[in-house]
Amino acid sequence: MTAKKYDTLKDVSDVVISTRIRFARNLKDYPFPCRLGNEKKCKVANIVKETVLDGHSAISDKFKYIQMSELTQEEAVSLVERHLVSPEFISDRQGRGLLLLDDESVSVMINEEDHIRIQVIKQNMDLNGAYELADKIDTLLDEQLNFAFNDKLGYLTQCPTNIGTGMRASLMMHLPALKESGAMGKISASLSKLGLAIRGTYGEGTEPRGAVYQLSNQVTLGISEQEAINNLRDIANQLITQERAARESLYKNINILDNIYRSYGILQYAKLMSNDECMKLLSNLRFGVEMGIFENIDISTINRLFIEIQPATLMKNIGKKLSPIERDGIRAELVRTALLQQKVPANRRLED
Prior knowledge:
Helix content: 40-55%
CATH topology of the largest domain: Creatine Kinase, Chain A, domain 2
Number of strands: 10
CATH class of the largest domain: Alpha Beta
Distance between the termini: 8 Å
Strand order of the largest sheet: 2-3-4-5-1-8-10-9
Radius of gyration: 21 Å
Number of domains: 2
Largest sheet: 8 strands, antiparallel
C-alpha cells in the first residue's frame, strides 16, 4: 500500500469540511441588543423578519422564521450542533429569532450580540461562493433596514473587534495528523500574529472534537472583505499542505494504522457509543479515508455523521427525549447502518 498523493489544492475536501461567511450588522435607529428590553428586541425581530419574508428576493419564500423562545432545549441545542447558531445565541432565547433557509445553508440570527448576524455555509472550501451569497443578502437587507455605518470605522458593532467589515470568514478543518504530531499549539500561536485564529469545533471557547477545528480571520478594521478572504485562503492552503505532509510521515506508523483499523471495527460492530467516543472513532475513520486506506467510504457520509450523532440532534431526529444509554445505542446503530451502505473492500496487505 502506498500513501495517497495530493497533486493539487483545487480539491481540498480531505481537509476542509465546510466554509462559513458571517456578517455582523446593526440597525441605525436602535441601541445594541444589550441595551434593549424584551419588548424592543421583539420589535427589532419583527422588522427583520418582515423585511426578509416579504422581500422581493428569489429566496424570500424559502426562509422560515423560528421564535427562539418557543423551542425546546433539545431543539435549540441542535441548532448549535448543526452550526446554524452560536452557543451564546441560545443562552437566553427571549426576544431572539432565527431566519433559516430551507436547505439550512443560510441563517440570520436576530438579537444575538448584534441585531443581525447573516451566516452562509457552503460545503468544502468555497469562500467566494459563500461570500457572494452573504453579500447579496446583506445588500438586500441594508436597502430596507439602514445599517449603522461610519465613514471612518465602517459597520458599527457591539464588540469593537468586529468594527469595520463586520465579517468573519471561517473554515471547518479536519487536522488529525497535525494534532497527532503535537503541532497545533505552535500553529495557533503563529496564526494569532497573522490576524487569524484557530479554535474548537463550535468556535470561541470550545475544544476541538474529533480533530475538527475552525480557522477564521480576526482582523475586520482597516482591511477589505476580499483581502480578509484571500488571507484566510492563503493560510488555509499552507495548513492543508502541512496536514498532508504530516499524514505522509504517519502513513507507515503501525500504531496509527492500528488505531484507524480498530476504529473502523468498533464503528461497524459496537452496540453502544458515547458521543465523545464516536467523534474520535469517526475522526480516525476519516483519517483513514483521507490517507487512502479505505477507498470506497464517502467522506461526506462521515461529515454528515459528525452532526447526526450529536445528542440534541439525535433526539430531535428521533422525536423524543432519550436517556444517555438510549442515545448511545441509537448512535451506534445509526453509524453501523451508514457504514453498511458503504461498499468497502477487504483490507489490503500493507507493503514494506
